[in-house]
Amino acid sequence: MNATNIFDDYQASLNHGTFFLLLSLLIQAIVLYVLIFAFTIGHRSILRTPQNQSLFILLIPNFLQLLFSLPQTLHYLRLNFVSPATPAYCTFWTFSNFSLNAISEFLMATISVQRHMLIFNSTVMRVRRQRILLFNLPLLFAIIYPTTFDFAVVVLYPCDGTLWNYTSNACGLMNCFFFNPILSMYNWIFNVGMPAVVNFTSDAILFIRVLMQKLHAHQRLPWKQQRRMAVHLFTMSGLYVISWIPVVVIGTIRSIQYSSALAIIRRNYITYFPSLVWFSLPWIAVGLLPELRAWMLKPLKRRTAVVSAGAASVLQNTYPLQVAHMIQVMPLMVGSISLALLTATGITFILIISLIPTYLQNHAISPSFDQNIVVLSVTYRTDLSSQNLVKIKNITELNTQLAQLFRPRQINLLITSYDFIISKDISNLVSIQCADGSLFSGVPLNLRFTLGPAQKQITNSQWKKYVNKLLNNLQFEYKKFSIIMSSITDPTIIRSVQLEFCSLEKLSPDATNTLITDKIRLNCPVAILGAGIAGSHIAYRLGPRFKNNLCIFERENYVGGRLYDLDNNENIPLAYSSNPIIPFGGMRFYANQPVVKQLIDELNISYYQYDYQTTLIKTRGKFYTSYNEMCSKSYTNLDCTDDSSGMNAQDQLWVKLLEEYGKNPASSYNYADVNAFCRYVLGDEATEYLRDSFRFRADFLNTDVYSYMEFLKQDFNLVAPIYYPHQGLSQIVKRMLYNAINFNQVRLYVNEPVVEINENIDKSYSVETMNYKITCKQLILAIPPLGWSNVQGTVANEIKSTKYFQSILPVRTIIIVNYWSNRWWENSILFGKYIDRAWTRQNCISFIEILSQHPAKRDMNVTKTVYDDGLCVGMWSDLIARNSQDDMVEELLRGLKGLFTDVEISRPIKTLTKIWPSAWHFQRSNSNVTNTELMNWALKPIGRFAKTQISLVGEAYNIDRSGWIDAAIKSSLASLYSQFNFNNVCYQNDAAINGNYCTENFV
């Protein structure tokens, strides 16, 4: 990534200073631990006393911390990043750190409580059963419980590994269980806070009990005999209190009231306090064990024996008395000295760390501003719960507002882009870590600023001063402000959004341009452009193979393309959501589409069957619910009866077209479009009947006959039953990407329209989106034809210039959905209460589908009132673009009353719209490209590239199955087989091809 965090210099220097301090403490601590363990192995009798057993057990987890956790910390501090940057490494690091710290805390708390028993009720230790129950088992529990708990929540707890922060110590401690409020709170209270509180409380009670015993002489214990145990406890407990109480206090304050200052203190200073235990405990052990000190001083005593005879005589006479005196006063003296040394070490540690920022500030460590253009990427917390339907109302006004807040007079400030950050799990809410170490779960907003000097003549030092002042304003002076957002669907709806500073990056701009030109660099060996059904299916299948080396980029702020559903609150449902939905795109599939059905079953998506009941058609001023009746009463000289197989009049006409096409397919190029072909084969009257009885309009005009008849051959074979997913077809894409991202670490970037696709010298590709410049070796282009209109570059232009690409005809479609206060359609006496579809060419309703006839949607009172693919698309587009919906609603009511003449229809309570510039695709008339040729070209669109390098996927490039999601899935299967050498896959009983669908037969 070609971006440098403005805090890097400061943080790097802070890390290096901490590194050398910890390294020096580590060396002396390791030496002492080794000496203590060596002494214990040679003098096992010392472990006969319970207090020494406790001390020895306590030393072990702290020694393991020095062996495992501290080297990892030192490695991070030396590099300023985590290496290796893998989820497995971070999991091991945090598990060892959490479990060993917890064991140490629980042991100390247990020892503090047990010391009461050893001092005041020492006789219980003489009974074996009581010793096991009150001494051994609590110590064993203090080891087993923390290890088991941390193994469960750190190692076994489900986690996708995408939250680790590889630029922070201990990977940012971004363990997934922290995002479970119950587990996180339990861990904080019982595993961190409670041992520290028990330790402190037990010491306080012990001090009071000892004091009271000394004041009551008649109940006085033999204090001289118990003094050593009391010194043991007070010294060790004091160490733990100094080390852990600050951690508990700071954490508790931050959980009650967030403070960025406390977050910085915790991250840079308090986080190292527990290491005081690791370093200081061996010194305390030396001070508390006279036998150990004597063993360590034995070599020194031998040297003092080598003296002159006279001097030796004097020494030998006085030495026993001196040693005896020293032994008598040594425990209290050593305890006092150890506590003093401990306090001094802690104070020194804090002072050294605290002085580093001052040192850095005095030495002017700051970002480099060699160029007079600076680009800043600033991320803010917002109070939004969803961003799908909002945008910044006026970027010019926001520029003015921010300039008034942040800008010194000498700086020109301009916002060049803004972007909502989208979650990898296909939701709006994300969890990010801000610069102060705090976590934010919500909808972040990223603003890109460019800064330039307002004066032509400005010194470098002045420029640094001005920019640093702005940085300070951004971070501290103006941390919170408001901006105005507006609804994408209804610009009249506006709201104020609160922003709060989160993090800041300095990007590298082009010195000749004040706009952002140096984008964030990404290396993606395999890149998928487009997160519709085809691109998402490829990501889902390639994820296990390529893992984090696979990236997918989507121009919209949602995934799924034309698989677009909204819930009743007009929000896009998440993966695995159970909310009722309204479909604005694809919504159904047939039971005999095995490619689709098996994928839906694989993703565990539930669906229901619905069979159409009554269809109402208005034509030539009359209303019909029967194709044959319509044929016989409104059209002349037509055969309007079922044939011997029971096929109705409409289907007989389609069969006649297919038979005529089959006689000489090449002759179909003689006709201008499908409408002309129909008039030649069927005649004018039959063609009018066919068009009136058919609910789609775009099929007949400007479409290539050969291509359309190839599509019709397959589409005509589809028969009921028809299935509808409860939560919509969009769940296919959401669940595939959820699995790809969470289980295989595939990287998803939304709100990233592709700008350029170029070829590099080494035959790799360079892809530019709004914010990224990506290098990749293999490219999957899941972009529909209209999506290429703003894409430039050598590769993009070469693809767009081919006859295959230019042959594709997008079909523009309008969707209008209405919610009603009552189910007025059930009141029709003329046509009955079971009408679920109606269409006409006599007004602009064109086609209505009454979704609330489905039992699953009955109580929603909702209709897809307009589904127009050509009759009145222009008119509806104009009405939708108006500031008010009033004119559109009036037109809707006029059209509905022209169809449902015998019912009262009140105004809808809510109207939602969706314009699809390319809902599905045919081929343009006279394209001279077959559907098979188009699909084969898509698998190798540029001849000089190998088939393994690049392919196009999507419904637009598989027009044999135009309009259906199995077109996109089959296109992606062909790409997987051709470009990535996947095994041939066969699906049985595919109705479209009237047999088994096998990938190898279509590549």
From TrEMBL:
Domain G-protein coupled receptors family 1 profile: 27-250
Record GO cellular component, one term: membrane
GO molecular function annotation: G protein-coupled receptor activity; oxidoreductase activity
UniProt keyword terms in alphabetical order: Membrane, Transmembrane, Transmembrane helix
Chain segments annotated as transmembrane: 20-42, 54-72, 92-111, 132-157, 188-212, 233-257, 269-292, 332-356
Subcellular location, record wording: Membrane
Record-linked PANTHER family: FLAVIN MONOAMINE OXIDASE, LYSINE-SPECIFIC HISTONE DEMETHYLASE 2
Protein name in UniProt: G-protein coupled receptors family 1 profile domain-containing protein
